[in-house]
Design brief:
The complex is a heterodimer of chains A (113) and B (112). Chain A has 113 residues and is mainly β. Chain A contains no helices and eleven strands. In chain A, the strands form two sheets. In chain A, strands 2, 4, 5, 6, 9, 10 and 11 form a seven-stranded mixed sheet that branches. Chain A has a four-stranded antiparallel sheet with strand order 1-3-8-7, with no helix packed on it. In chain A, a hairpin with a 2-residue loop joins strand 5 and strand 6. Chain B contains no helices and eleven strands. In chain B, a hairpin with a 2-residue loop joins strand 9 and strand 10. Classes of the chains: A mainly beta (113), B mainly beta (112).
Chain lengths: 113, 112
């Protein structure tokens, strides 16, 4: 157990639907990162939050949004889902926003049918 | 932008040594990480280099040359459990943070 908790572990849904993925960072970590991993793209950075504020944005689609709450947990919302959104979504946390080691959660596997 | 390149796949024999290379072309570099990822699992941290040179940690070592944009991960005394994907990640400056940006990973297959 890495200390980073992600739910749900698996999710199957249909095109056009909306889902929410949840992440609780490791105790004491203030930064949360979201990554998408698909077979042909590797780990792609989506977005990072630090202590409740958005800090960095990667290749995140406009259909996707995220936030970090006062208790530091984070949610990634994916809407108008397409087949190509099927992937493993990882959350990771670190102490701050420097060049830190990331601790990854076990991931949420999303399948869009 | 950034370009991080690693071989797609490598094979090696149990007990042998293998070197996995990573080259990068980036701006705003602040260190290079190596992670190990078993199929379907989360990546786990192996090493971090920010200065040139070799970092040794048990059976694993990592080397960095900033001037050449080059790193390698060296795995010694290979074991079957070392079969995994090895991810090179460069810490890039972005919006006041440093974001680990990953290559596509090298799938290492260790055979008896």
């Amino acid at each position: 157990d890495s200390g980073v908790t992600q739910t749900p572990k698996h999710l199957i849904t249909a095109t056009g639907q909306r889902v929410t993925l949840r992440c609780s960072p490791r105790s004491g970590d203030l930064s949360v990162y979201w990554y998408q991993q698909s077979l042909d793209q590797g780990l792609q950075f989506l977005i990072q939050y630090y202590n409740g504020e958005e800090r960095a944005k990667g290749n995140i689609l406009e259909r996707f949004s995220a936030q970090q709450f006062p208790d530091l947990h984070s949610e990634l919302n994916l809407s108008s889902l397409e087949l190509g959104d099927s992937a493993l979504y990882f959350c990771a946390s670190s102490e701050d926003s420097g060049a830190n080691v990331l601790t990854f959660g076990a991931g949420s596997r999303l399948t869009v049918l | 932008g950034q370009n991080i390149d690693q071989p797609t796949e490598m094979t090696a024999t149990e007990g042998a040594i293998v070197q996995i290379n990573c080259t990068y072309q980036t701006s705003g570099f602040n260190g290079l990480f190596w992670y190990q990822q078993h199929a379907g699992e989360a990546p786990t941290f192996l090493s971090y280099n920010v200065l040139d040179g070799l970092e040794e940690k048990g059976r694993f070592s990592s080397f960095l040359s900033r001037s050449k944009g080059y790193s390698y991960l060296l795995l010694k005394e290979l074991q079957m459990k070392d079969s995994a994907s090895y991810l090179c990640a460069v810490a890039l400056a972005s919006g006041g943070s440093y974001i680990p940006t990953f290559g596509r990973g090298t799938s290492l297959i260790v055979h008896p």
